[in-house]
Amino acid sequence: MPPFIQKYQLGEANSSASTAAITVSLATAFVASFVSGFVADRLGRKRLFYIGAILNVLGCIIEIAGPNLVSFLIGRIVTGLGVGVFSMLVPLCKLKIMTHRTLGSSFCSDTLLSLFIYKIDQSEIARPGNRGQLITLYQMGATLGTTIAYWISYGTYMKQSDDISWVLPIAFQLVPGGLLLLGLHLIPESPRWLIYRNRYDEALEIMALLRSDGRKDDLNLQMEFTGVRQDVGFDKRYTRKSFLALWSTGTENNLTRTLLGMGIHIFTQLSGINAILFYIPHIVEASGVMDRPTAVLIGNGIVGVVNFLGTLPCFWFIDRWDRRRILVIGALAMALSMIVVAILSSIYDNTMASSSLHRYIGTVFTPMSGDNKAPMYTILVFLCVFIAFFALSWGPVGWIYPAEIYPQIIRGNAMGVTTSASYFFNLVVTLVAPFMFMGMLWGTYLFFGCICLIMAWVVHRYYPETRVRTAKPKKE
User: In this predicted model, what pLDDT tens digit does every residue of 304-316 receive, in sequence order?
Assistant: First the structure.
């Protein structure tokens, strides 16, 4: 937004500052997600949620109130830490609500990555038969929060010409962040963590609220509680807990588990999904068939809606189909979409047109252009197809699969490591993508298409199925 760029003197004349404003949040989220697993095992899930919520609110205030670029970057660092904490915790734990089976709802968001949390019972509390649906709520919340942020940004971009155009989208984060902070006292601790800490009575009481309307003498509840207690006891006795245990082989085979979990997140980023979502307004404007306001509307608002709506059908099939089947089908469909985009771009990319939107890392965004509107609109359609199939497959399953493959004793640490891998490669792709679009042109889409084909083959060849397993996976 021009007022934002003018205030902080961003742009070609200060490309390093532009790069820092974009990437610093991803970098700090990487650090936070990496260490959050170790902290969560010691402090507990709920206490770490408090820390994340406070960081989110504090960072937003600093971004808004700060007088210069340095203060804004400090705010981005603080909010990035909060987002990293949430990204690890939400799929790992649960947020439960107390009207019958539920207690309330809240969401917290970052300007680019929004974490909407609504009625979430995650891997440590969900039953195997519906764990996929419940963790999918995390992805649905992220896409919904992102869509809301897109439309708020679009509205202020079109209607405001002063500082309110960028202050309002950032200030809006205080609403969900504040609600989360205020509502955390209604959210109990993870029962599995309590059992791990030998706090059995508290764990049984929480499980009773979730499973049997508070009746602790319910037979099914007692059987489940006993099973979880035995699982946790076995892990405490026979599984190493240190960071090095994540890379151990032998009977535990944690090295394979860690590589599988990291691989899911690395492939998710290398598929190009965030590069497309991040730069699609530039792609649309550089196509030469739309002006800047329309490019922003299509690139952010409409595509955000596609991403959100694509997540909704997952609730029907996510716990009916095998995880591997969903991942393979999704990767193949994404690959086909990217290959079609690459072919059309290579044929009709005859006259280069530059995007007049924000320029990153001192480059001019020139991915595609042409005078024939039909191929350009076809390209946009297949980009939306790519995003929709990601939302149907790798979006939710990318969070479900890692939560299902680790034993309780290392799950917190392992989820922190795998989530940090996602942020690291997100950062890498964000930095490299402009140069790829500049240097490779349509070859960028072909590259992402080939990566998606590799993803499908690797999952089919090396990834075991995890659907309908207990929260503690079977020994291999």
Answer: 899 999 999 988 8
Count CB neighbours of 236 within 10 A: 15
Q: Which uninterrupted H or E stretch holds 467? A: none
Residue reference for tokens 């202050």: 167
**CA angle at 359 for the pair 356 and 360, rounded to the nearest 5°:** 160
Number of CB atoms found within 10 A of residue 437's CB: 24
Confidence of residue 124 (pLDDT cuts 50, 70, 90): low
**Cβ atoms < 10 Å from Cβ of 25:** 28
Question: What are the extents of the domains in the chain?
Answer: 2-187+239-462, 190-238
Tell me the one-letter amino acid at 246: L
Chain-centroid distance, C-alpha 282: 22
Partner residues linked to 115 by β-bridges: 108
pLDDT digit string, tens, across residues 424-450:
999 899 888 888 888 888 899 999 999
- Give Cα 221 to chain centroid, integer Å: 33
Altogether, the residues listed in the chain come to a count of 476
CA 215, CA 209: separation in Å to the nearest integer? Answer: 8
Q: Euclidean distance between the first and final Cα of the chain, in Å?
A: 53
- Calculate ∠ Cα 179-180-183, nearest 5°: 80
Give tens-digit pLDDT for 13-57: 445 766 777 788 888 989 998 888 788 878 888 888 899 889 989
Token duo for residue 472: 């503690």
Q: What tokens were used for 130?
A: 């519906």
Whether the pLDDT of residue 353 is over 50: the answer is no
Residue 373 clears pLDDT 80, i.e. is over it: no
Distance CA 280, CA 290 (A): 12
Q: State the Cα–Cα distance between residues 240 and 254, nearest whole angstrom.
A: 10
CA distances from 348 to 35, 223, 367, 376, 439 (A): 47, 64, 12, 8, 17
DSSP 3-state of 269 = helix
Kindly state the helix (H) or strand (E) to which residue 256 belongs, with its residue range.
Answer: helix 254-270
Question: In 93-199, which ranges are continuous DSSP H helix?
Answer: 131-159, 164-171, 174-183, 191-196
Contact 168, 156 (CB under 8 A): yes
CATH topology of domain 2-187+239-462: Growth Hormone; Chain: A; (1.20.1250)
SS3 percent helix, strand, coil of the chain, rounded to 5, is 70, 5, 25
178-217: pLDDT as tens digits: 888 888 888 788 888 888 888 889 889 888 887 788 888 8
Distance CA 442, CA 7 (A): 35
